[in-house]
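As a warm-up, study this chain.
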Amino acid sequence: MKIAVGQEFFKLMKQELILKQSLILSGLILLFAMVTKFGNLDVLSADSLVVTCFNSSWLIVFFMVYLASQTFSMEFRLGTIKNLLKKNQQRRIIFFSKLVTLIGYSLYLNVVAMTATICISMILFPEVSLNQTEVLRVLVTNLLGNFIGMWLFASLSLMISLAVPNESLASILGIAAYFISSMLAGIQFMVLDQFSWLRWNPLNMLNLSNQLSNNRIEKLTQLATNQLLIGNLVYIISFLLIANFLFSRKKV
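Now compare it with the structure written out below.
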């Protein structure tokens, strides 16, 4: 398993993807910070944006959805899956080594976002003290909520990529699912008012991050924060188990 994980990390590091996405993510945070600082827009507040890493979570989700949809599809398209199967006879080892790599990379992207936010904030917004316990607590809480929400989409994209034979279609479906779900996440509150038993639907799980920072949303989600957390984890594990099953049955 260690060798397989090491190989997957090595393949990922050889790609230009890491540098490109790191620069784009850092650049987006800098852009939002500059607009907040010099844009004179009342709707943008440094206090609220710093603790959300300048609303960069959507870009991290986009990056992870794309990578999750490509990680297996590329192996089958290029035929390199045959070499992996020769080296590692057990498909579950291949699956979990790729999963560990995706988890590691998702952690890396969040570290990049947090580091860029802290560095830029110290220069542009020295009045927002990151030494304050409350500011750090909210920042870490938001990162945790966004990380779990990100993996809800990443696991779904991974499952879709193994269910759909076309690599491009898998990416499009994964990205489309993210944007459509994000738009419907708020609208579904009207449905919950009429059918409370639907509160366990995956769209409602997307409100975890918002509820972590605002407990009043609990009245809309009709679920406690720990219930939203459990629901997210159940969906993520379910998607990953289905993806593992699909991979174990997929023809080479």
